[in-house]
Structure formats: C-alpha cells, structure tokens
Amino acid sequence: MASTKNTSTEEKVPEPVQAGNKSYEEIVQAIREYKEIVTKIEEKKLSSVTSNGASL
Amino acid sequence: MVPHFNNSLIDKLNSFLVLDTSVLAFCMESEENFKFIDHITPNATLMIDPVAKLEFLRGAYQESVLKQRKTLLEYKRFNKMMDHYQIHHQTYDQAELISRIYTHHGISDVPLGDLLIMGRLSIYTARMMFATFDKNDFSKYIFDRVGIVTIETETKNNKDIFRVLQFLELNRSKLDDCISRLPN
After folding, report:
1. Three-class SS of residue B115?
2. How many structural domains compose chain B?
3. For a disulfide at B22, which of B106, B133, B143, B157, Cβ 3.0-4.6 Å?
4. Are A17 and B79 within 8 A, CB to CB?
C-alpha cells in the first residue's frame, strides 16, 4: 500500500487575489469586439479559399 | 443559446469554483454565454488556474485577439490561483499521484494540463469546485458531480446541438482513499 499522503496539505496555500478590475460592461464590450475580429478573420479565410477555387 | 438546468444548482455553487479552459472559451464565444456563466455563479468565488489561463491564451495569433482574451481574464469577479515555488512543487506532487490513480483505473492518457489543474485543486484546504465541458478527463474517482447544465447552442443541418457543462466538487475522502490503495 502506498503511504497515505495527506492531500489537504498543512502548509498554507495563499488566498486567491483578484485577477483584475474590469467591470461586467467592459467584458461584454471586449467579447463584442472579439466576435467582430474573429468573424472578419473567418470571412477572410473563406474568401481566400473560394478565390483559390478550392471546394468548401 | 438555451440552457436547461435545475435552479437549485445556483445555491449549490457556493464555494471556490475553478473555471476550466473550455468554460473560458465558452464565455468568449458570446455576450450571452458570458452572461449565463455570471448569472449561474453569484454565490461562487470564481478562480482562474494558471494552466487554464495559459491554455486559453495560447493559439491567439492576432494581437487583437490576444488582447480581448486577456481582457476577459481581468474580470473583477475572477481570482488568480496563486503560484510560487512551494505551490509549484505541491501541484506537481499531487498531479503525479492523481496520474497514478487514473492509470490504476486503466486511464493512462489524461492530458498534462488536466492533471496539473487537478493537482492544484487538491492542494487547497477549502471546498473546491470545478466547471468544465470536458466529459472525459475529470472522473468520479476523485470528484462528486454537483450538477449539470445542458446547453442548446445551435441547429446545424436540422440537428440540434447540445453541450453539457458539468460542475464537479473534489472529494477529499475519495482522493485519500484512492491514494491509500496505490501500490508502493
């Protein structure tokens, strides 16, 4: 049998710290902009494929 | 996007809740998705694992895409799981033990990132929950399932697409029992 290692270590694990201070509205705006960028990238890829005559 | 879930789940998600890479990617897909994750977790302390962060940011070729993904990680409700020399070693030790548990259950190909996430979860002394769309790599050997959300996302070729978001809680008794059963 393996030695039973206590998984909930006695050594203190630091408390989590806030990752940032962006508000809900700022995140929503970032997601909207992200979607626009990703959509443009996909459209570009698609037009590149079709202009090369490749099948979809 | 139409989620189906039991409303009691919202009350159950009342501890530290670590978001898997798949959940971060889901949030980034649309405002609606992000709103839903925010809505279903009002009682949870949302945590970002450094490995999940790395997985989420990798592959962002365009700087503008990288910038927006980084912005998501700066949401004021997100908390960083701390990482330093000592935690790093504890995480690796635990990940190794967990990989042995899985191997002894016939699963020897758990992705490295998932092992490290589970390793870090297991060194916290508090109750730790985990949200993921990954149905395969986080088993009931060491977790309890707290709840499931089925999400109707879109219809393609007249077929409905469903995604399953599961919420798990690390069960320390199960974990310690599995570890004690490992051969020397």
Report:
1. helix
2. 1
3. B133
4. yes
